[in-house]
Design goal:
Blueprint (H helix, E strand, L loop, with lengths): L2 H19 L1 E13 L2 E12 L2 H20 L1
Antiparallel strand pairs: 1-2
C-alpha cells in the first residue's frame, strides 16, 4: 500500500469521525497566581466544534484521493 492510499484512508476516517462526533474537547491548565511556594492552578475545559460541511468535505476529498490513487 503506497503513501497516497494511506493518506486517502486517513482522510476518510477523519471525515467520518468529524461527522459522527461533531467536535472534541480538551483541558487546558494554567497557573494564574503564584505566591512563594503556594500556586493556584486552574483547569479550563475547551470545546472545539467541527462544522458538518467540513467533515463532509474531508470525506469527499478522501474519496477522490482514493479513487485517483487506485487508477495508477
Amino acid at each position: 500500500m503506497n503513501g497516497s492510499k494511506l493518506v486517502a484512508i486517513a482522510l476518510l476516517v477523519t471525515g467520518v469521525l468529524a461527522v459522527a462526533y461533531g467536535g472534541f474537547s480538551y483541558t487546558e491548565e494554567h497557573t494564574p497566581v503564584k505566591v512563594g511556594p503556594v500556586e493556584l492552578k486552574v483547569e479550563e475545559r475547551k470545546d472545539v466544534n467541527v462544522p458538518l460541511w467540513a467533515g463532509i468535505a474531508v470525506i469527499a476529498a478522501g474519496g477522490v484521493a482514493l479513487a485517483l490513487s487506485s487508477r495508477r
